[in-house]
Amino acid sequence: MSATSAYRDTWAEVDLSIIRDNVKSIKSRLPASTDFIAVVKADGYGHGGAQIAASAIHAGADGLAVAYLSEALQLRRQGVTASILIMTPIRVQDVSLAIKHRLELTVASAEWLCEAMAYVPKSSKSKLRVHVKFDTGLGRIGIRDKSEWDALVPCLQRKSIIVEGVYTHFATAGRSDVRFLREQAAKFEDIKAWIKEAGISVRRYHCANSVAALRFPELAMDGVRIGAALYGLVGDDYAKAYELKPALSLHSRLIHVKRIVKGQSVGYDVAYRAEEDEWIGTVPIGYADGWSQVLQGSEMLVGGSRAPIVGKIGMDQVMVRLSRQYPVGTLVTLIGSQGAEEVTCSELAAYLKSVPQELSVSLASRIGMLYKDRDLYEKIEHSMARV
Ligand SMILES: *Cc1c(COP(=O)(O)O)cnc(C)c1O
Question: At which positions is substrate bound (predicted)?
Fold first, then answer.
């Protein structure tokens, strides 16, 4: 591995061929009629939104989803032409801008849609493409009951509205106890009946995120919204069972190596003292890069072995205990594998008491991003990834 990011020995790599493999692997488990909506919010879970969008579409994804209007507009500016669903309600005054960019919007209340109608340009060609969001148990956003639905129906019947989708989101897709998920799914079936009764035609019903789609193929319906699994950011069990690989790896190099003797301290607040004579390496990454202080004690790979972080993580640098002396410049892998050893985002997420994707989205723009593709001869450095 010779490439590094500009002027800095810490860089992330995204293998776009793995993104394509993951799309194909997930698609092969879904009914052919189910749309694959690639979720590329939060800059593609920290992997680079436009690059992931292009790779996912190339591999057969049918459309994209993001959280915010700002994210959708950035993808359009970067030349992404696929359909984009915005999963959080936008400000009503931005509706005409969204229509201009052919964006699909989430309707989570009747009031929002009634107010938004004032911003739909009057020309007969202007259509507001919406996905109606139902809250079947997550308690976040969406229509919760029949009376709210009844209030929404007259607005949905307007000629300028196209109901591209009706959807919900599960609260417990990854839990072993499936009762709550089954209740949510049953509510969604009732909702389908309300919609039929009202005579509203809906292009697609979609309710499953990554884990729901993988665990319960019968819930795939007309579309699935796949985020975490697209990036291979799932637990090891899922990764194995569904042949998913993590696309992101993170690397650095030792910038300083020293021998310390028993009793000497390392780092702020003298938080670590050597219990014997030890080799200590310094790695140029810190909490300003998203390598949070809660990762203290986690391990990195140096020379194919695990090296634990010792002392507190600083803003820009962190120290690790080495199994032996290594030269300055030795490759350090913070996420990814060296030989038989591998550090995954799931392993590190345990320190964060969170999910693997919290780590990938936390990586700061200060870390350069390098794109690899085994189908291309050259690596393409894309310093614009996080603009
Ligand atoms: C983020 C998000 C998804 C993707 O979830 P994953 O678990 O990452 O697959 C799907 N649907 C909604 C509404 C989301 O906000």
Answer: 140, 315
pTM of the predicted model, to two decimals?
Answer: 0.95
Kindly report each contact of residues 306-313 with a partner whose C-beta sits within 8 Å and lies 24 or more positions away, as own/partner: 306/341, 306/343, 307/281, 307/332, 310/266, 310/267, 310/272, 310/280, 311/265, 311/266, 311/267, 311/268, 311/271, 311/272, 312/267, 312/268, 312/269, 312/271, 313/286, 313/287
User: Residue 370 domain-assigned?
Assistant: yes
- 173-205 pLDDT tens trace: 999 999 999 999 999 999 999 999 999 999 999
How many domains does the chain fold into?
2
Q: Which domain holds residue 269?
A: 248-381
Q: What is the whole-number distance in angstroms between the Cα of residue 226 and the centre of ligand 1?
A: 6
Within a domain: 18:
no
Q: Is 1 annotated as a binding residue?
A: no
Euclidean distance between CA atoms 5 and 302, whole angstroms: 19
Ligand 1 centroid to residue 127 C-alpha, Å: 26
Annotated active-site residue 326? The verdict is no
